[in-house]
């Protein structure tokens, strides 16, 4: 078995143990996971996907995708290229490309993305603004009504 990028007894490195950037598929498969029994307090930022199965008390600002699993709960804002929610979010959602609320989602806060998908059964207590794409982590644009 390969550990920390070391070769195993057959001289092969397993795909999950290769240093990041050693192949094009590594970026596509890199992901930070907050497990179903974990509770994280603070801000998450980075350039890889984030999967929240447990509880996050703080903001997530990532360059790629944030997924809140059905068992996940976020008390804070989510800023990413795309956001998929199946669990609970108590905060603002800002996606540069797409936001999707699955049937089991409960969101208390505003959703701002150029493309928004809300499945039948999803609960949203807030507003939806379909805006032009902006860079991830940038301050949201003020609307003419504010």
What does this structure look like?
By secondary structure, the protein is mainly beta. It has a domain at 33-129. The chain has one helix and 16 strands. It has one helix at 24-29, and strands spanning 31-34, 39-41, 44-46, 49-52, 55-57, 60-62, 65-68, 73-75, 78-85, 88-90, 93-101, 106-108, 111-112, 115-118, 123-125, 128-129. Strands 1, 3, 4, 6, 7, 9, 11, 13, 14 and 16 form a ten-stranded parallel sheet that branches. The protein has a six-stranded parallel sheet with strand order 2-5-8-10-12-15, with no helix packed on it. The radius of gyration is 17 Å and the shape is globular. The termini are far apart. Mean pLDDT is 81; it is low at 1-27 and 139-146.
Summed up:
This protein has one helix at residues 24-29, and strands spanning 31-34, 39-41, 44-46, 49-52, 55-57, 60-62, 65-68, 73-75, 78-85, 88-90, 93-101, 106-108, 111-112, 115-118, 123-125, 128-129. The chain has 146 residues and is mainly β.
- Overall outline: globular
> Order of SSEs, N→C?
HEEEEEEEEEEEEEEEE
What would you call the quaternary organization? single chain
The major pleated sheet works out as:
10 strands, parallel
Instruction: Enumerate how many helices there are, as a single number.
Output: 1
Query: Percent helix among the residues?
Result: under 10%
Q: What is the CA-CA span between the terminal residues?
A: 57 Å
What integer is the average pLDDT? Answer: 81
How many β strands by DSSP?
16
Q: Approximately how much beta-strand content do the residues carry?
A: 35-45%
Radius of gyration from CA coordinates: 17 Å
Residue windows where pLDDT falls under 50 for at least 5 positions: 1-27, 139-146
- In terms of structural class, how would the helical and strand content be classed? mainly beta
